[in-house]
Each structure stands twice: as C-alpha cells, then as structure tokens.
C-alpha cells in the first residue's frame, strides 16, 4: 500500500509539473506579441524624438527657407554695392562720390560735396535753431561758395535761418569767419540774423531779420 501511495503521489507531481510547464508556455506565447508591439512603439517614439531635436536645432541656428533667401537676395546685393564715405575716398580718391553710390549722410540729410545739409520742417528763432543744429552734431549752414548757395536755394521751399549773424558792425558766420561774398536781396530789411529765402534768385535772396523771429533753418554737417 505504501508503494501505491508513492506511485500515486509521483504521478500527481509529474502531472502538476506538466500542467505548469504548459501554462508557462501559453503565457509566453500570449505576451510575445505585446512585447513586440512595445518594442516597435519605442522605436517610433525614439525616431520622433530625434526629428523634434533636429528641427529645434535648425530653428535655433536660423536656417532660412528658400523663399526667404530669395527675398533677402536683392537686399544682400544692394548692401554689397554700398560703402562708407571713408572707404570710398580711400579706394577711389579720383572718382566723384556721386558715381560710387556712397552714403556719407544720414537719412533726412542732403549730400552736397563733402557736407550734409538738413532742411527743417519746423520753425524756431535763430538761437534755438543754432542749438538744434548743434544737437544734431552740426551747425547752422555756412554758405562758403556760389555752388552751396545755388544748391540750398534749389532744394529749399521756405525761408531758412543760416549761420550768418551781425556782431556789432560786422557780419560773420558761426564758424568765426567774416562774411566775404554775399547774396543780399535788393529789398530793405532790418535785423541781426541772416535768412536765405529760397523763393528768390540764388544771386540775391538773403534778407535780414530779427533773431527772435521764428523761421525754418538749415543745418550743416561737414564730413
């Protein structure tokens, strides 16, 4: 009887081991597709992460799109054709500045020879005009040649203060030079400060006015 019990017990253990092995095999077969799916999804996430990183790096480095390059090309070409006033003078000393495309004056200023001129669009008295020009880095205009006189007359449309003032009995410029050649109008006027009236002929369009009067003004900045 003891032998039968042992045999029965041994057969039960074998059956239990066989059942467990079969169950483990079925479990592994069921979990295998899920593991494969997890691996595939992980790879997809990794690829997407790499794509996001690459795009972020490109955006940070400022890579431009093709249409942006096409729009910026004309500006780049235009910028390559300009130079500073000093560079133009050094590279091409014998060529007139107007043929070089150089910009020696800021926006709102007119270029003539080696000077820049600013024609105001508001009115001040002579002293206020002087200080305004000084704040811009220049002074009231000094008409030192017939060419400058003709240029300012042609560009202006109003009456403008220039850097001409009477001290005692002598008329002089703001650069401390005494008035030489002049372009006084034939009309009689009184005052200690000079105005260029652009509606008159360039040969005689200066008039005298009170320095406290309000008028437009012309600033000059020499290069």
Automatic annotation (TrEMBL):
<dbReference type="GO" id="GO:0005886">
    <property type="term" value="C:plasma membrane"/>
</dbReference>
<dbReference type="InterPro" id="IPR016186">
    <property type="entry name" value="C-type_lectin-like/link_sf"/>
</dbReference>
<dbReference type="InterPro" id="IPR001304">
    <property type="entry name" value="C-type_lectin-like"/>
</dbReference>
<dbReference type="Pfam" id="PF00059">
    <property type="entry name" value="Lectin_C"/>
</dbReference>
<dbReference type="InterPro" id="IPR050828">
    <property type="entry name" value="C-type_lectin/matrix_domain"/>
</dbReference>
<keyword id="KW-0812">Transmembrane</keyword>
<keyword id="KW-0472">Membrane</keyword>
<feature type="transmembrane region" description="Helical">
    <location>
        <begin position="36"/>
        <end position="57"/>
    </location>
</feature>
<keyword id="KW-1133">Transmembrane helix</keyword>
<dbReference type="InterPro" id="IPR016187">
    <property type="entry name" value="CTDL_fold"/>
</dbReference>
<protein>
    <submittedName>
        <fullName>Early activation antigen CD69 isoform X2</fullName>
    </submittedName>
</protein>
<feature type="domain" description="C-type lectin">
    <location>
        <begin position="112"/>
        <end position="220"/>
    </location>
</feature>
């Amino acid at each position: 009887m003891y032998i039968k019990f042992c045999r029965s017990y041994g057969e039960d253990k074998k059956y239990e081991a066989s059942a467990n092995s079969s169950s483990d095999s079925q479990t592994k077969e069921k979990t295998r597709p899920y593991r494969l799916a997890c691996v595939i999804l992980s790879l997809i996430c990794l690829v997407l992460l790499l794509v996001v990183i690459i795009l972020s790096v490109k955006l940070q480095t400022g890579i431009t799109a093709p249409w942006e390059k096409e729009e910026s090309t004309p500006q780049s070409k235009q910028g390559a054709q300009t130079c500073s006033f000093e560079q133009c003078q050094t590279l091409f000393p014998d060529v007139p500045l107007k043929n070089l495309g150089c910009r020696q004056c800021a926006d709102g200023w007119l270029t003539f020879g080696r000077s820049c001129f600013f024609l105001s669009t508001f009115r001040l008295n002579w002293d206020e005009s002087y200080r305004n020009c000084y704040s811009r880095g220049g002074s009231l205009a000094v008409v030192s040649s017939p060419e400058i006189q003709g240029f300012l007359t042609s560009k202006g449309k109003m009456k403008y203060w220039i850097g001409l003032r009477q001290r005692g009995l002598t008329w002089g410029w703001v650069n401390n030079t005494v008035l030489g050649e002049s372009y006084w109008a034939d009309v009689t006027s009184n005052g200690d400060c000079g105005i260029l009236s652009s509606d008159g002929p360039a040969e005689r369009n200066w008039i005298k006015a009170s320095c406290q009067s309000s008028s437009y003004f012309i600033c000059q900045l020499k290069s």
